[in-house]
Structure prediction request, 463 residues.
Amino acid sequence: MDVEELRRLPLFAGLEEQQLAELVRVGDERVFDTGDELWKEGQPADKWWVLLEGSIGLAKRVGKEESLVGAVSQPGQWAGGFAAWDPHGLCFATGRALERGRVLEVPAEELRRLGDEWFAFGVHFIRGLVDTVRRIESTARQREALVALGTLAAGLAHEINNPAAAATRAVDSLATTTQALVSSLIQLSTYGVSAEQFAEIDALHRAVRPAETGSGPLALADREDDLSTWLGGHGVEREWELAPVLAAAGVDTAWCDRLAVVLGPEALAAGIEWVAHSLAMQALLSEVKDATGRVSGLVAAVRSYSQLDRAAVQRIDVTEGLESTVVMLGYKLAGVSVERDFAGDLPMIEAIPGELNQVWTNLIDNAVDAMEGAGTLRLSAHVDDLGRIAVEVADTGPGMPPDVQARAFEPFYTTKDVGKGTGLGLDISRRIIEERHSGEMSIDSEPGRTVMRVTLPVLGELR
Prediction:
């Protein structure tokens, strides 16, 4: 390494001969081989590295895995040195050599001294600008994350509360129904009902089919009236309680006539009660099963959405992430009609599903906000003419004016009211799609229709 080599780098254009010589004097040339670790994430950034030759990958740890987030591959690109302006500056990623090469390594304190001597005002201006932008972006990102987490948590709590409450009500009713069932069984035994009669009662009970209830609520109401009249005429007490249960299960008066033949007039009331409570218990157990299944489905959707128990990079079906996101945002979709158009032959792609789910969340949330909670949300996924996966999130909102479309992906730009948006959602989404997944993101909007389009390569290179 010498002055001539540094002069050829665009980074040092404009420096005088003695300044380049000073850089050579205070810096060291460091040679590295493929796989060498030059700096580590989280360690003090007390060195400034300028690439002279070769390539260095930037890896960041997410959970228990490392992901490649970028590379230093062009001579003159640099990394580190933050301690020159911030005593607590740390390396944001681990630098690991992708191929053999060399770097200029300058201690942070020397970099600060040279900056103050050569362009003091520029250093002062940059330091203030970096600190201000970093502080604003950090605060905005934290707020965006907290707001998103809070709304998702509230929505999930709302979604889980409904089936959980249904299961609780059913379990409470099961206790009462069980006691009544046992009581009716004891009554049957006091009338001396034989084993053969019990077998016939059980056969009639098993013959009841819910499909026999009729075609609608009017038919069900007529059946209840007929049963209530029949029960009252045969001396069965509390017919107003038993008739709805029997009617809902598919019992009719002809069935009751057959039971009366088996039991006779004395034991008939106890037999009717036993059958009714048995059917009620089956219905309550079905409610518990449906409710707990709903909770289990929500938990599975959360697991799919968060990807906490899976590898960072996976072979995925993009529709799975779209579906889990719809479940997570279900609390916002009460007045929205969701249409799906997913091609059946979608190939699997290699991606980071947790990050893609963040994109789907931002796009769907924006679409619902644009429609003000009422309209049609259309989700589609297909293979385009170039063999890429094309995902579209469309809404029937008022659309975006051209000036808004032109700035939609700018950081901190938002059309939402103060306190409702930070302007980072689409910026983050674009970075995830374009910089992390080698894809593309675009907007097609007109009054009454806005389409956010994401294209992802099937065999794209993750960054």
